[in-house]
Each structure stands twice: as C-alpha cells, then as structure tokens.
Amino acid sequence: MQMLGPFSRMNLILLFPNDFADNASRVRLQGRRLRHVLAVHRASINDELCVGLAGGRIGTGRVTNLNEMVLEMDVCLNRLPPPALPVTLILALPRPKVLRRVLRSVSAMGVKRIILLNSFRVEKSFWQSPFLGEAKLNEQLILGLEQARDTMLPEVILRPLFKPFVEDEISTLIHGTLPFVAHPAASASCPRNIGQPVTLAVGPEGGFIPYEIELLVSRGFSIVNLGDRILSVEAAVTALLSRLF
Questions:
Q1: How many helices (H) and strands (E) does the chain have?
Q2: CB 244 within 8 A of CB 192
Q3: Burial of 44 from C-beta contacts in 10 A (0-12 / 13-18 / 19+)
C-alpha cells in the first residue's frame, strides 16, 4: 500500500459543508487542499478533479477560479463512495508515529470502526499523547479517505482499560461477527477471503501477554497467525486485513 507523504497525490478532494459558497453546487477552498491542487495536481481553469462530500457522495469538481489565494469549483456529486470493509479493528495503542501510519492505511482500506485499546505492553505515556485528540486523529483518517476516494470517516473509540473493556463490552461488540486475535504463537493460520463480518484484535509490539490472550479467548476469539515471520504492527494490520478480505 502506498503511504501518504506531504507531496503524494490527493486522489479525492474531501469537501465539508462549510466549503460550499453561495449555492449547493459551488465550493471555495483555501489552505492545504488549495496548496495541494497547485503543487501536485497543477490544475488549470476548466480542469475536473475528483471530489466528495464528507459522509456523502463523490463526483467531480470543475475548476472555475484558481490562484494562490483560492480554489473555486462547480461540483456534481453523483456516485456512492466505495463499500466499507465489514470489520471492527481492535488495536493495542501503538506509539504515535506508528499510529498515524496505521490510521491512514486502515482508513484507505475501508475500516470504519477502530478501537484503540490498552495492553500490558503499551507504554502509559502513549495515552498522554496530544495526537489522541479528535482533530489530530481525523487528520490522518482524512488522508486515508483522500487516498482511496472515500468519504465516510471512520469512528475511533479509546479504551484505556483492557480488562473492563473485554469483560463488559466485547461480547456485545463481536455479536454477529467472527472474532480473531492475531498472535505469533498461534497454531492456526489467519483464514482468507472469509466473506463475513469480522472483529480483529491486534496487539502491541511483542503481542498480547498470555493473560490477555486467555481473556479474549474466553470471550470467543480465535487465535490466528500470519506465519513464521514476525511483522511490525503496521505491516501486520495491513496483511491481516488483506488476507481476511
């Protein structure tokens, strides 16, 4: 999967209600999206760009005005965004730099519910990171949506207490899904293309400790692995999702 950098192509320009100017079909943009169109798309008047309304349809925007101060487009939103992956991702909170990359990747892949969970091997300082604020999380999720031409923002839920979450919430959460927990010591391989809703739990670097695995298994999770190689969290998440779907 292509990782997003400051100069990578924005495959979709995500629009928000306050971008619309005088009517429902014209938008006016400044800031990051304008700079990207100028530097990367190198658009001109009458060019058409892929656009989408956050939470809504996608379509095209025809450039009517473009300079260093503003981008104006007439937009037509006439198509549905791509379907979501039927998965809830439970992820032991990684270090902030890794989390940023994971959020971009899973957002681009179509994951719509992400639960960030504490674990014995998660450093307590990670939970104090300013990156866990809603605005900072959404920045990375939006980059993933723009990469994949999607408009439906994923939900991120923070659960800083492992045991209460697993004991009190997880049975309801996994209802109607196949629950898997990835673990290097598992004897069973991760299944392929299962075609059913999934709840996928991925631990921190080093994996969940035995107590945590036992608690998840007691609530119905099956333990699976990806083979003999030990992968980083970000590589494992992408590989697991690609394999399951």
A1: 7, 11
A2: yes
A3: exposed
3 inside domain: no
Identify whether residues 74 and 181 lie together within a single domain. Answer: no
With contact defined as beta carbons under 8 Å apart, do 221 and 212 qualify?
Answer: no
Which CATH number goes with the domain that contains 103? Answer: 3.40.1280.10
Do 45 and 118 reside in the same domain of the chain?
Answer: no
* Residue pLDDT, tens place only, 108-138: 999 999 999 999 999 999 999 999 999 999 9
Per-residue pLDDT tens for 152-188? 999 999 999 999 999 999 999 999 999 999 998 888 9
Number of domains present in the structure of the chain: 2
Q: Does the pTM of the predicted model rise above 0.85? A: yes
Q: Does 138 share its domain with 67?
A: no
Band of pLDDT at residue 8, cut at 50, 70 and 90: low
Which residue from 64, 53, 242, 75 is spatially nearest to 146, judged by alpha carbons? 53
Q: Which helix (H) or strand (E) holds 14?
A: strand 13-15
What domain range includes position 218? 87-244
Q: CA-CA distance, 179 to 131, in Å (whole number)?
A: 28
Q: Does residue 27 sit in helix, strand or coil?
A: strand
Question: What's the residue count for the chain?
Answer: 245
Residue 150 main-chain phi, psi, to 5 deg: -125, 160
Confidence grade of residue 142 (pLDDT, cut at 50, 70, 90): very high
Average pLDDT, the chain: 93
Using CA atoms, how far apart are residues 220 and 222, in angstroms rounded to an integer?
7
7 is a domain residue:
no
